[in-house]
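Researcher: Next entry in the queue.
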Amino acid sequence: MASLIQKIARQARTTFKNCGSSPIGENSKGFLENHTQLRNLLHEIRAEDLNIAPRKLDPSPISVPHNPPVTYMHICETGAFSMGVFLLKSGSAIPLHDHPEMNGMLKVLYGKVSISCFDKLDNPPDAASEAQFNPPVQSYQKNGLRRSILRSVGEYTQHSGPCILTPKKDNLHQINAVDGPAAFLDILAPPYDQDDGRDCHYYKVLENGDVKLETGEQKEMWLMEIPQPTDFWCGAEPYPGPQVTL
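Model: Structure for this entry, 246 residues:
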């Protein structure tokens, strides 16, 4: 009998098989049915299914390159999707970043994470010039400004359903480990590919960065593209779970 992670990989391949070559109609009946099946399978996955034991608090300081704040276990990758596990140390975060023209699913395996999700908005002409920032933004930085909507801030555990992103909705997010180490299974479709216009970009919030959202409330904000933060990098470690073949 196929392992659960093998079933997830096969369903991800079926769901996203055309997303690298043509736009996916989010309202397409076939895509929505496959997407729902994949989401249901992800809801079942647990750390023990991948032979991953929840990590304990690590008192050793984060250092380059021996003790990164985040590590990644690669499971599989095709032209249609990639799948792996991110492991976050206590107090660490994956900074605010985007997924250009990509779909994604994130399922917590252990611990708790807080996820802040944003949508990009179109920039009206001269919008960045008219906006007031504190501290002021230099003229050379204005090309990196993006209007956005902070759509939601939520906490996820192993008992939560998957966090979903699409090319247009919740496409930017920041992920923070809460109250200890955490890990999540991550599916991206299609995978990042700089040569195909899908490079990862990082951002910082310029206004109201400490906003607290009430349920259902959304907040328009300005983001500025920045280099990868110096306090974030991702190490690698071997995947210990069942083999996946496609």
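Model: Helices lie at 4-16, 29-44, 127-130.
Researcher: Noted, moving on.
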